[in-house]
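Researcher: Quick one. two chains, 946 residues in total.
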Amino acid sequence: MTEVTKIDGIGSSVRRTEDKKFLTGKGRYTDDINRPGQVQAYFLRSDVAHAEIKSIDTKAAQSAPGVVGVFTGSDIAADKVGGPICGWVVPCRDGSSTKEPPHPLLAQGKVRFVGDAVAVVVAETMEQAKSAAELIDVDYNELTPVVDFVNADEGAQIHEEVPNNCYFDWELGDESATNKAIESAAKVVKLSVRNNRLVPNAMEPRSALAEYDSLDESYTLHTTSQNPHLTRLVLAAFMFAIPESKLRVIAPDVGGGFGSKIYVYIEEAVCVWASKKIGRPVKWTADRTQAFLTDCHGRDHVNDVQLALDENNKIIGLRVDTVCNLGAYLSAFSVVVPTILHGTLLSGQYDIPAIYTNVKGMATNTVNVDAYRGAGRPEATYLLERTMETAAKEVGMDPAEFRRINFIPKDAFPYQTQVALQYDIGDYEPHLDKAMEMIDYSNFEKRRAEAAKRGMYRGIGMSSYIEACGLAPSAVVGALGGRVGQWESASVRVNPTGTISVFTGSHSHGQGHATTFAQIVADKLGIPMENVEVIHGDTDKTPFGMGSYGSRSLASGGSAISKAVDKIINKSKKIAAHLLEASEDDIDFKDGKFVVGGTDKEKAFGEIALAAYVPHNYPLETLEPGLEENAFYDPTNFVFPSGTHIAEVEIDPATGVVEVVDWAACDDFGNLVNPMIVEGQVHGGIAQGIGQALLEDAHYDENGQLLTASYMDYCMPRADDLPSFKVGYTNTPCTHNDLGVKGCGEAGAIASPPALINAVIDALSPLGVTDMSMPATPQKVWKAIQESQSVAAE
Amino acid sequence: MEIKDSYELPLSKERVWAALNDEQFLKKSIPWCEKLERRSETELAAEVKLKIGPMSTRFTGNITLSDIDPPNGYTITGSGKGGIAGAASGSAKVKLIEDKATLSTTLSYEVSAQVKGKIAQLGSRLIQSTAKKLSKNFFGSFVKQLEDMDKS
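Model:
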């Protein structure tokens, strides 16, 4: 792997092979698929946030034109179909476990958020289903909605099983050591931050098409999933109590997920159920409003931070008290996001001798909150990097130097944090230095002065983040409350002519696996990339696997492929040894050829493949014919990408508009397989982070009505909101996977919000502004400028 | 949501009050009203068709009159269901103040309203402007009808 010369091997920016179909509009998404006899499902959703259902009258809808069936919660209950489950729970401080209330597929007796499904209408066309749904009369007894999650414990109880609307009250770290550090500190920096609520906004809305085969008594479900095998497992084992073999789940082309398509939602389960009930294929596709209302949202935390410093400005303790909003029901990974994925990140890149955190997860009458690009790690990074910047300013140090003196030194790895993680490797000063150089940090004050002449406020802000991704190993995940394994699978099939079919348990919904994974195989086998096809997303084709989330595909899925290819090479050597009449130990494999060391005797990889399938001259007594290998790879640790992002902004005091004028991102992702794809991931991540920091905010009013349920009110970043990014890398290869890779999918979204808000505050610091909440909208920024000026005038 | 506004009408207080209590007259003043029927002294049934932003919806609902203080004002409370567009409920305090000198009456109202479902999701920020537009239309035709009656 040290010799990277092939143009399509590891380290080469090969163009994405999948883009031809996507760029020409030929992608095949769930909603593009139609089955003979198919009918359409439409869900009648609650327009009140919290209510008892007194009655549902579906009579008129039943006899409306085109209607095939109208079903409510009682129909689901009669068939004893279970609801979605929580995939990870944590213990509470009082020794109890996470409270897991049931989540019925269709409301039973109560609705708990605006968008909660009350009934489903199945009709010949979507228009007929929608029209019939208008005829359903639901009589509600409205209850007081709980919207303010910080005070949700004082609100009306949403679930019988969840006293004080608190799903869990979890802690991590050494509380007494941390409190002692705070008490003995030379300085304690205090900060309260809020991580604004976001809507994932995948370009393709969720969709499901379910079909029942009565002869086979089996189901086929096409759905927008990031992990079809987990979807099958949950639906078969926990909801329908059928053998997995009776359910095939296909996630064809999927147009973005960002976490929102990890979970099994009620809609696909209802489609599966209705397909048997009705005896016809049932399709459902969300419109954009339904996506806003029912896709799991992200973030929504408030954090109180106390950072203790000694007299040399070294950090001696960190305490973080967090309250987070989990919404009306517990979604699959809603519990792990603000706890394990958040609390364990609190050491950041810093050597902190005492850390304690408490997290309370609250129920509210809002849609479920779960993983969204970064999942817990952006929230941890935001509070930490906002605090680091604030602390640096309070003690009068340059923020870069304050970070530098607190970095974990490079000779301290492997480094055991006080919050459970052990970082295998890292080196933080090089990416800080490089990012500062990329943005010309040392000359910033000149640029600030120049901007001031133009009447603009210019600011600079940074964020040195760490990310823990590729969750692992399974045993640790299990000990922490995870209910699934965290390994990944691969099956590598060498076809008789030497072409390769790779079956991965990962799932691609924009990441470019067909390219990246093919590069790995091509590199290892010394064959052209065109000879490698990557197959994913179909439980009938691929081995059981966990899918894609948490930046795990390359570190876990790519490593599994690498291991399977190693097995192929080992078996090929045995075949080559036989064909070349040499000892296996004397066979070298290089550039796609098996060579007897020190001779010119060789066999090409294709010849070995053919011999394996046409075993006329083959050691059948000691070796099986064929050439196909599986690997199941359970990583021994998380991978720890890190980096420094620096944002530079200009603010127009007349309008409050924040313009992002420059951006330097220097990341350590370990080895890069396809730098172009990595750069694309960095760009996308930063764009989403800029969206969170400046524009996006999901807002419920006090009655639990989602007011930002369309693009008129929910502001997404556009090209003209973004600068041209400067992207650079450092590299400390991961020590525990063969490829030396980390993850890059979420880093941009993790690193960018604090860098940008730090820059906004820095720009306004001459006015005395010391805080700014996300999103820093023109209105908010303008108000801060006006208030500071009126204070100055007094 | 709170909406406050007032209109000066070139009419006596008694005249305005009588019109405000004549459902046939009211119905004619509300072009988007498809049905307005009196059920009792204080109760009416209504059906209106409204366009809010991108949504066109028929609301059916009940209206109750309370705090009736002839000829000075009353409170109208109503709730309506608009099918999949959602629902709306609210109340309006209507007050009439006469200016003897100019022979005009100022009608002021204070509305507090809640909207649910699609109207809230898509139209919340359009409601204020829609409500203003509708009330302007209403009072325009209200006055015009009274004037036409005077002429005939």
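Residues 2-147 of chain B form a domain with the Alpha-D-Glucose-1,6-Bisphosphate; Chain A, domain 4 fold (CATH 3.30.530.20).
Researcher: Thanks, that's what I needed.
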